[in-house]
Every structure is written in structure tokens, then in C-alpha cells.
Amino acid sequence: MQNSFTEENYLKIIHALSGREGLEVTTNALAESTSTRAASVTDMLRKLADKGLIHYKKYQGVRLTESGEKVAISVIRKHRLWEVFLVEKLGFGWDEVHEIAEELEHIASKELVERLDSFLGHPRFDPHGDPIPDAKGNLTEPDYLILTDVGVGEKVLMMGVLDHAPSFLQHLDRSGITLGCVLEITEINDYDKSASVRINGSNSLFISLEVSKNLLVQRR
Amino acid sequence: MQNSFTEENYLKIIHALSGREGLEVTTNALAESTSTRAASVTDMLRKLADKGLIHYKKYQGVRLTESGEKVAISVIRKHRLWEVFLVEKLGFGWDEVHEIAEELEHIASKELVERLDSFLGHPRFDPHGDPIPDAKGNLTEPDYLILTDVGVGEKVLMMGVLDHAPSFLQHLDRSGITLGCVLEITEINDYDKSASVRINGSNSLFISLEVSKNLLVQRR
DNA sequence: AAAAAAATTTAGACTACCCTAAAAATAGAT
DNA sequence: ATCTATTTTTAGGGTAGTCTAAATTTTTTT
Fold first, then answer.
1. CATH architecture entry for A145-219
2. Among A118, B13, B30, B42, which residue's Cβ finds the most Cβ atoms within 10 Å?
3. A120 to chain B: nearest residue by CA?
4. Which of A54, A59, A56, A61 is nearest to A12 (CA)?
5. Could you give the ipTM of this predicted complex?
6. Contact between the CB of B1 and strand D at under 7 Å
7. What stretch(es) of chain B map to CATH 1.10.10.10?
8. Do A109 and B99 touch (CB under 8 A)?
């Protein structure tokens, strides 16, 4: 049987919340993420468990089964490929594409996904730096650093963001921080942990701890 | 309030069935087209009427209101633009795109549609020769001939199809009949109204009345 | 113009997904 | 180890969209 729009969203969110260790996800966390009440989550969990998509024991939280994992990763693949399309082909900003991709990710056709992938040149990362699962369902999370883990004087490459909120991404745009740029921490303020950062070797600016916490980077 | 996937489908189908004269559409015709029962159609009609999207009097059939027409045409615009995308950019055959576009046509973002339109170079017709409504909602149906109305010796341009069934389109592919090709009727068989047709001035083939009835053409 | 046939609507019910309120289970504090 | 707070589940219910069966209206036939 086909999975509904709603079921796919639950699986996607369970995947995101269980992290790379595949930890148990709680009912309340799901209620929060799906903007529904805990009671509604319980209903859906029973249903997903009946379909063999999650491991579920009452009061014990949930994990994806292998089959549930497959569905979740397929949805993530579609979401991220469509985001690449929207940014690369249609010229949307990286702050504008999430909502639209939330709808596009549920289009079923397998053939469509593979042709889209090929049309886009088999991109490995989406416009926010998130890795795109391959056609076989392999998803390898690169182990980036968070900018807060980088010391003064170090030069790093900007590889992704943790926060996908439009307001955060627009803030980065205004600061001139883009995927792939070189960041060099020139100073860290002891008092509030705000930092001075040089971008691509030239203009320098202050960024708050809040921003640093959400920037994924890589040593070169 | 937003219109649901299902509501949009009803409006689109009412538009199609009422033709360019905007004739009343019957409950049974809608039940047939939506693959549901007449009772279900009645329920939905009451709902659409409450929302001001259709004119509905019990037992009297329905017509779209101006606001319903706007929604229907927007859905048609999206459907046909996505079909162009699927064929022109992703390399699908014209026989493969209908189902996928049935899903894509319900993606809401207005911005997406306008950017897609622009990315595709503002196409006027979809891969089946159907006209694409413009951004303001103007839809002008070109007045093509049906091939059965063309006499022996006449040369016409192949402009569209009435039947969108994959099997019919595949049959045209095998016959070498494509959008824009020149068809010349060399002979019409009096017995079964099958015809001999020259394609682009060269190879000749037989086509049945059934096929002729579904080909839209234009005198040059 | 009445009877028969066909089309349409109403009545009552089902599934998916969501809700609130109350009950039950787990976790935390003393 | 028990009591309390928190989390989760159950119970009962609502809306959207579908169904079947029965009632009603319109159309067709005679």
C-alpha cells in the first residue's frame, strides 16, 4: 500500500530526530515537530507500527525499521533534489525553497526523481550544504565542525547550516557568508563569545555566538 | 481558505466537461470523470457551492463561477507547464507525463509557477498541443480542425491530440506522427473511412477513423 | 398524462487524521 | 520506597471525503 503525505512526514521527522545513532524518539518530541498533540501522535505511531515502518513499544519511544528508513531517506532525497532545482534552475534564494520542497518531496514517481537527479548533474549537497542520499538510499553525513569549535587564527570552509530558518539564512546573505566561502576567526570575545571573522580573506565582521552555533565548517 | 487537492480536481474536471460554452455539467458525468459515486459528487458540489466556486441548483447540474473558473485555469496552467518541463527538460515522452503532472499541478506556490514559466521560455502550448493559460488566467482555445474534416489532397499541420491516453500517443510515435509534422491525405477509404496519409512529404501510412478523430490539425 | 426509467439527492456509515479530557505508566524527588 | 510530576495512552468525538441503499426528482416512453 502507498504511504500518505502525512505518514511520509512522520517518517521524515522521526529520521531527523533520531539522529545518526538512530536513538528512540519520544511522542512529545514528535508532537512538537509535527505541530499536533501527543494523542494524535500516538494514533499515527500505532498505524506506522502496523505497517511495519517503525519499532514501537508503548511508552518506550520509536525507531524506524529498515523499511521506514528507506521511505524517510527517499523523501529526504526528493526534498533536497527539488531544493537544488529551485535554487540552481529557477533562481530562488536558499531562504525561499524549504516550504515549496515540503510539497514537492511527496510527488511519487521514481522515474521523475532519477531524471531530475540527472538533469541537475547528480548533486551531492543541497543549497544548505545537506547531503543528498543516492538513488540506492545511501546517506552519508559528512562530519563537519561547528564554528564554535574553531579557534582564533584558523581558516575554515563554510560547508552548511544547522538552522534553516529564512531569517537566519537572510542574515547570512546580508553578512556575505555563503556556502564554500573561507572563514578566518580573527578574534573571539571572551565576554559573549562573539567572534570577528574575515570572509574570503577580505572584509571582516562580527558574528554572534548564536550564528556561530549554526554554521557548519571544515578545516582545509 | 485554501482549496484542497480534491476540490481543485473537481473544478478542473468541471471546466473540462463544460466545454468552451460553459454548459451545465451533470452529476453523473462528474462521477464518471472522478471515478467516484454520484452520491459523493453531490456532497462535494454542495461544498463547492458553499465556497462560491460553482453555481449549483439541485438536479440542475453545475457551472463554474468566475472564482471557480480562476482556480480551474490556474490548475490547468500548472499542469501544462509541468508537462512542458517534464518533456523538454527531463526528456520524458509525451505519453508519460500526464500522471506526474496530475500531482505537480497541486503545488501551491505562485512564485514557483511564474519562475517555471520563465525558465521554460513562456511556452504557449503543452506537449500535446493544448494551450497554456497565461499568468493572468487568459486561456484561448485555438480553433483547430479534426483530421476527419480534411479532404483528400489537403495538406495540414499536426497541432494536437484529443485523446491523451498513453496507448494512443505511443501509437502515434510508432507511426511517426509528431506535433508540427505535415500531414497530407492521399486517399480516404469509403468503406471504413480509414485514410492514407503522407507524413512530411515522404512515407505514407494508413490511419484508422479512430485515429483521425483524435488528431487536431490546421490548414497552412 | 400517467407509468416506467434514469438521474440525483438524502440518510447513515466508514477511514484518515486530528482534537480534548481523563486514565495509566514512567521518571524524579524526598 | 513512596509520593509527585511528567509523559504517554485511551476514550470519545469532529471534519473531509468516500461508500451503499433508499428516497426523490426529472426525463422518457407509451
1. Roll (2.30)
2. B30
3. B90
4. A54
5. 0.90
6. no
7. 5-64, 76-141
8. yes
